[in-house]
Amino acid sequence: MDDVGKSIVDNWGSLVSVIGCSRLTEQERGPVSVFEEIEVNFTSGTATVIAESEYDTVRVEGRFSKLPSRVDLSDAEPWSQFIGSSALWTWTLTNQQGYTDGFQLEFRTSSDFLGIQLVCVASHLRVSVVVPNEH
Fold this sequence. Notes:
Radius of gyration: 14 Å
Helix content: under 10%
Shape: globular
Largest sheet: 5 strands, antiparallel
Number of strands: 9
Structural class: mainly beta
C-alpha cells in the first residue's frame, strides 16, 4: 500500500476519473450506492481501494478494479471537486486494534487543501471529505 501511495503522489499526475465498483448490479443492490471498491484513475496510473469484508479493513492496489458493476463517480460530489488536481499526500489509517481500515488522499483544489477518506464500514467503503479547521 505504501508503494502505491508514494506513486500516486510522486508519479501519477492529476486525478482524471473515479469509479465505484461492486459485485452487485444496480438492480441487485437497489438505488443505494455502496461500493466494495473505488478505482481512482490518474493521468499516469490507477489505484483501487478495496474493502476487505473479513476484518473490515482496506487494501490499496495499483490496478484497475476487477468487479463487474462499475459506476462513474467523477461528476458527483465529493469527487468532482478533486478531478484535475494532483494528490499531495496519502495516508493509511490504522485503528487502535492495529487494523488498517482507511485510506486518505489530500489534494490542492482551486480553493483549498482538501482530503478525502475511504474507510471500510460494514464491508463497504464510506467516503468522507476532510476540510481544514478554520479558526
